[in-house]
Records
---
Amino acid sequence: MARQNTQLESAGAEFLVLGNLLIEGIPAFKSYTNMKGYDLVAVNAEKNLSARIQVKSRWRSKAEGFIINNFECDFVVIALLNRGSRDGKTEASPPEYFILPVQVAQALPRTEGWGKVSFSKFPDLHLYRNRWELIRSALKMTGGQ
């Protein structure tokens, strides 16, 4: 089976994360295309602080992991799009978001060469679900949802 082209969905995941940041009251913007190491920037203009965010998306529901080799960011947001499966046997469900400080992402076991992180080797992943306040805290912002 040919490799599935998910470029459009990947770009959509970046905008989904951007939208969630804005809804959470965290000012953010999309960086220029192909910026090395990050896709979004969250800011606190009053305190002259910013956080670079790399978005890693998975199209398929029940994805096994993600590939990461560049850690030139402050946060990695895993966006599980949960669009079902190519064979149609798995139904689509709402997206899920996991917000990891880059130090947490760097500490995860990865395969040689590819740099694949297996979700099964990250049992505490659930602790980072919808943790937008980690970004808010890094920007020394108060309030939020």
---
Amino acid sequence: MFGIVNYGAFVAATVALCLTPGIDTVYILTRGIAGGRSEGVASALGINTGLLVHTVLVSAGLSLVLAASPVAFTAIKVAGAAYLVVMGVRTIAFGGGPAKLASAAEAAGESAGEASARGGSSLATYGQGVLTNVLNPKIILFFLALLPQFVATPNGYGPVPFLLLGLTYTALSTLWTVAIVFLAAPLSRILTRSERAQCLTSVVSGAVYVLLGAAIFLT
């Protein structure tokens, strides 16, 4: 089918991989618990948009070029690690700001101006998710290792099978990551009831981002 072989096996492998906690899952859960359901969903959509970017890069052969270039690969790795570390430090420094905002919005409704601010906040969170995923070199290597295994040789369909496989992976990943955000929502509501819990959550969240950055740097 369009140059794809063992599509059923690919779907099964994708489901298994989605259920296995990784950097993206930890990141989305952390954002959802600290900032509420809307921030978690925005993060999930951002992360999975990043997967679409990687899909296009693999389809165009650019991921192979990046992986084969030590300078380019190292630059992406350092940028991704630094981005998460800076995010972690800022989260700790603000001491619960995002959690307080989410708590207030969910508990008391919003004016037009507040709704606009929340929309801007969600858009920023979405953008952070995109960058977090795109700047993760592990995803580059992962897609390069996974997708070609399910593309027929010789491949007479060009980038089509890579695009279809990437879209399948992204769709299943989106369903799973949004689901875990909703599953974690009750915990977020409990934590945002106490100012002390909000501050503690911010410190823990910030520490998680720093650790994720370190994990990327050590790739």
